[in-house]
Design goal:
Length: 99
């Protein structure tokens, strides 16, 4: 398990940390939370996802090592691409059912 946070590069502050099993899981959690019109969606260049620490649940140890995971811009861009793909599929399926 790892601790993650979103860093606001503009004010040099971190959001409260959250736990995920992997970097990919953390990306998914953040991606699912990005709403159209949110600060993260409006200003993605100001934010990055970082891994703050690793947590060993067996030994109870936390190893601090702040590492860049990805930019919020990448997450927002991928989310826009995915939502566009879903909408295109919905339009295609609606057109087929109307024929």
């Amino acid at each position: 398990m790892n601790f993650y946070s979103i860093k606001d590069k503009h004010v040099n502050m971190f959001s409260p940390p959250f736990l995920c099993a992997s970097d990919e899981d953390a990306r998914k959690v953040i991606s699912d939370s990005v709403e159209v019109g949110s600060v993260l969606a409006k200003f993605p260049e100001d934010y990055i996802l970082v891994r703050l620490a690793e947590f060993d649940p067996v030994k109870g140890f936390v190893s601090v090592n702040t590492d860049f995971v990805c930019s919020m811009r990448d997450i927002v861009r991928n989310e826009i691409i995915e939502r566009t793909r879903i909408l295109a599929n919905l339009v295609d399926s609606t057109e087929v059912s109307n024929e």
